[in-house]
From TrEMBL:
The keyword Ion transport does not apply. It holds the Pfam family ribosomal_L24. Belongs to the universal ribosomal protein uL24 family. SUPFAM superfamilies: Translation proteins SH3-like domain. Residues 10-58 form the Large ribosomal subunit protein uL24 C-terminal domain. One of its GO terms (molecular function) is structural constituent of ribosome. Keywords: Ribonucleoprotein, Ribosomal protein. This is Large ribosomal subunit protein uL24 C-terminal domain-containing protein. One of its GO terms (cellular component) is ribosome. GO terms for biological process: translation.
Length: 64
C-alpha cells in the first residue's frame, strides 16, 4: 500500500515526577514488603517512621 517502504517508528521516553504517597513505598523491616507509614514520637521525643502494618520503626538511612 505504501510502495514497499517500511514506516519508521520510535518511542520517545519522557521523565515524569513520582507521586510519592501513591508510587513509592518504604519496606517494612518485619516482613520485607512495601508498607504505608505514620510519623510518631518515641518516649524520648524522637520523631520516627512506623509501619502501619506491623507497628515497627522503619530506620532512616545513614545519609539522613
Amino acid at each position: 500500500i505504501n510502495g514497499g517502504a517500511i514506516a519508521a517508528t520510535s518511542i520517545a521516553a519522557k521523565e515524569k515526577p513520582l507521586i510519592v504517597p501513591h508510587q513509592v513505598r518504604l519496606i517494612d523491616p518485619y516482613d520485607g514488603k512495601p508498607c504505608t507509614i505514620e510519623w510518631r514520637y518515641t518516649a524520648e521525643g524522637e520523631l520516627v517512621r512506623v509501619s502501619t502494618r506491623s507497628g515497627r520503626i522503619i530506620p532512616k538511612s545513614p545519609a539522613w
